[in-house]
Structures are given as structure tokens and as C-alpha cells.
Amino acid sequence: MIAIIKATVSLVITNSLLSGTLTGDPGPSGAERVEITVLATGPNSSADGADFVVCRTQKELDEAILRFGITQKKTITADFGKGVVCLGFLGKRPTAGYGLKAKAAYYLPSGGASNDPWGQDIVPLLSEDGLNPDNVPMAHLQERDAVVILQATCPPKDAMLAQVITSPFIILYLNLADPKNVYVTMVGCGGGE
Asked: What local confidence, expressed as pLDDT, does residue 112 receive?
């Protein structure tokens, strides 16, 4: 499954995932890498299909966690003065073994470039980060837009799996104050490389 999703200041845009921090230096183009911190992941949410939510306040985050039935909820807080929280959902899957992981995030700053037609300013960064630009759908970036690249993970074909419906999610903190739009590009299992 490959999708490009745009989320703006509103809480949820429909129809549009590991622990640790991903960081990097600015690239040679006008685009910059964005530091990502994975706040939580899990196999169970109430999302029926792929979805992506951008939260700019603690209230929006708490409402999204409740709305998407994330039962593993521990107290998740973030410094919303310095960044935003994104929730990514893979949608229902027929067995265990599926998930989402964060691959990278990029930002086009004001004055970095006039406009980025279908992600051309991030192509050099994708290559430097080990991602094949041909396998990553691009978003049309304007100044102050960001794009998050999520990858679905799937169980091996010969794996013995629990026959239980799952709906994997990931919650990320982007160390990026007040982006205008946040897009997500979701690549399928093993995609992007």
C-alpha cells in the first residue's frame, strides 16, 4: 500500500509507523531533516483503515488517543511549543505481525526553496538516508511543509501467526515548531529501499 496524506491544522484528515530517535543534518538542497522521536507503537487501535493525525496541542493528542482506542495509553506528553505529535495508523490486518516504523521526516523551510514540485528537494536526502526515491511517493511541498515517511512492516510469509485482527499504530514527535502542513508518505512492507 502506498499513500500520500496531507494533514493541516485540523485534527484528522481521513483516507490518506520501533523506538528511538531519528536525526540528521540538513541536506544539500533547501530541504532539511527533521528529528523524530517515537513515543509509542502498538498492534491495537480502532482505526479501520490507514489514517494520519497531526496534533498541535495536548488536548488534541488526548482526544486522538481516545478516538482511536489506543488502550496501551500511558501518559504521552510533548513540548508542543517546539514540535507536533503525529499518529499513524495502518488499518485492520487479519493476523499479528504487522506494524509501522518511522523511516524519515523532512521539512522545506521558508526561503529554503521556492516550491518543491513533488518532493524534488528531498530526493538527495532520501538517497543519503538509504531510501530509493523511485519507491517513495512524493508530496508537493510548499514552504514550511513537512513530510513523514512511514513504512509498513509485515510478517514473513512462512511465519506461524496468531489469527487475531490487529490495527497497528505509531505515535511520533516531530521536533518542528508550527509546520504549515504535515504530509505522510506510507510505503509498503520492505518498500522504500
From this structure: 57
Bridge pairing between strands 181-187 and 3-7? antiparallel
Name which of 54, 56, 62 is nearest 86 in CA terms: 54
SS (H, E, C) 76-145: CCCCCCCCEEEEEECCCECCCCCEEEEEEEEEECCCCCCCEHHHHHHHHHHHHCCCCHHHCCCCCECCCE
Cell 482506542 belongs to which residue? 69
Q: Note the pTM of the prediction, 2 decimals.
A: 0.80
Find how far residue 118's CA is from the centre of its chain. Answer: 17
Cα–Cα nearest to 138, from 89, 100, 192? 192
In the block, cell 544539500 appears at 28
The domains of the chain are located at 3-187
**Which string of DSSP letters, residue by residue, matches 19-49?**
-EEE-----SSS-EE--EEEEEEES--S-SS
Reported confidence tier of residue 7, pLDDT bands at 50, 70, 90: very low
